[in-house]
Write a structure and sequence with these properties.
The chain has helices spanning about 5-10, 15-30, 30-45, 55-65, 70-80, 100-120, 135-150, 155-165, 165-190, 200-220, 235-250, 265-275, 285-300, 315-325, 345-355, 370-385, 390-405; strands spanning about 85-90, 125-130, 195, 225-230, 255-260, 305-310, 335-340, 360-365. The chain has about 400 residues and is α/β, with parallel strands linked by helices. It has one domain (about 5-405): TIM Barrel (Alpha-Beta Barrel), CATH 3.20.20. The protein has an eight-stranded parallel barrel with strand order 1-2-3-4-5-6-7-8, surrounded by eight helices. Helix 10 links the parallel strand 3 and strand 4 (about 225-230).
């Protein structure tokens, strides 16, 4: 039986110095006032080019959660993880183009560059894409608003809205389609899966439609394109099942990356401000129940669904392995994969790998300026999620004590 308590396996890839640095960082994250101060000062300090700001960030929070500023720097991290049978989901940390069409085209070329690089490495089978790096946020909002007022299935609402767009907007959207198609086509050719990140609820519908379109083209014989489903939304379990119906009807493999979610505070605040129904589950228990039910649904249909269990919840990961055992399926089934963020939950990742599971670290890379939004989310998550920082700290301290007594 898999245990997530073995810290020797969990931190074998970290030196004593790296372990002490992680201990310092998570200890700091346990102080909300310090995190809030850092989050307020960090973006401004970078923007004002205050001396040593980037050096401090790179030696602390950046090195804990990010692979490097370039592919070359990231390669060393990927190689080290590969020594422990841990794979990589490579993520170029761009979160929205500020340079218009030129910026979106640059992002597209960078995503394709990442795919081509991943194809040369033995332990990088996945790469991650944020659609907001390829399209104007306002256009996504326009399409999403229209889809919410239309009726019918996701794709019927999508096509209805496209017909109602202005000529310029339709041409702009066609360029978006061309970009995502180029990325997925490269992934298919190079045998690298493309994981489409989830976005905020008010732009998610067109992202879902885009992803379904790409799956219908590229997932006929293998899982190339995956959609990310945030189960802290109370509608995502039914969406998963609807997506499976669409896949079954159109005869493609559904790619599903299951996460709990990343925008809870923002989502709830906006729902109150704009007076609409909160899209987030009413309790953590409901989220956990839907997540585990989604895991079971995917494993029940594992021949037609390729699923990535992207979770830091020990119970959900263990539940998935138990379902595999119950069905007599191998832990490294080609339609099932586990994943955790780099810098977090090493006790889950490395113990899963030790047991023969197919597991990866989600590994972002990019210039510090570009990954600041990602780093801010990691800091907020570790300070706000009950027990997250304490759990990480406890495991680190346990391993430091084990090494001292060894």
């Amino acid at each position: 039986m898999i245990s997530f308590d073995n810290t020797e396996y969990a931190f074998a890839y970290k030196t004593n110095k790296e372990l002490k640095r992680a201990n310092f960082l998570f200890s700091s994250m346990g102080k909300p006032w310090l995190i809030n101060l850092g989050l307020n000062l960090m973006p401004a300090a970078i923007k004002l080019h205050i001396p040593f700001t980037k050096t401090i960030i790179k030696k602390t929070i950046f090195s804990q959660f990010v692979g490097g500023e370039t592919l070359q720097e990231t390669a060393a991290v990927a190689e080290k993880l590969g020594q422990y049978d841990v794979k990589i989901i490579l993520d170029y940390g761009v979160e929205g183009g500020e340079d218009g069409e030129a910026g979106f085209e640059h992002s597209t070329k960078e995503f394709i560059k990442v795919i081509n690089y991943a194809a040369t490495q033995k332990n990088i089978p996945f790469m991650s894409v944020k659609v907001t790096g390829l399209v104007r946020f306002g256009l996504l909002e326009t399409i999403d608003n229209g889809m919410h007022t239309a009726t019918g299935t996701l794709m019927k609402r999508y096509y209805a809205v496209l017909d109602a767009l202005s000529k310029n907007e339709q041409e702009e959207w066609q360029r978006v389609l061309a970009r995502i198609t180029r990325i997925c086509e490269t992934g298919s050719t190079r045998n690298i899966a493309v994981l489409v990140d989830a976005e905020e609820t008010w732009i998610q519908d067109p992202v879902d439609a885009l992803t379904i379109l790409m799956m219908d083209i590229f997932n006929k014989t293998k899982a190339v394109v995956y959609n990310t489903m945030q189960l802290y939304r109370h509608d995502r379990l039914s969406f998963l099942k609807d997506s499976f119906e669409a896949a079954d009807e159109r005869n493609f493999i559904l790619g599903a990356k299951l996460v709990r979610g990343a925008y809870m505070e923002k989502e709830r605040k906006r729902a109150v401000e704009k007076n609409y129904t909160d899209p987030i589950q009413s309790s953590k228990e409901n989220t956990d129940n839907d997540y585990n039910e989604a895991v079971a649904f995917c494993i029940d249909n594992i021949e037609k669904i390729a699923v990535i269990i992207a979770s830091h919840n020990e119970e959900s990961n263990l539940y998935a392995t138990q379902l595999l055992d119950k069905k007599g399926l191998p832990h490294n089934h080609n339609h099932l994969h586990f994943s955790q963020l780099y810098g977090m939950s090493d006790n889950i990742t490395f113990n899963l790998a030790k047991s023969g599971c197919s597991v990866s670290k989600y590994l972002p890379f990019g210039p510090i300026d570009d990954v600041i939004p990602y780093l801010m989310r990691r800091a907020q998550e570790n300070s706000s999620v009950a027990g997250q920082t304490g759990r990480e700290l406890g495991l680190i301290k346990k391993e430091m004590a084990r090494r001292r007594s060894a």
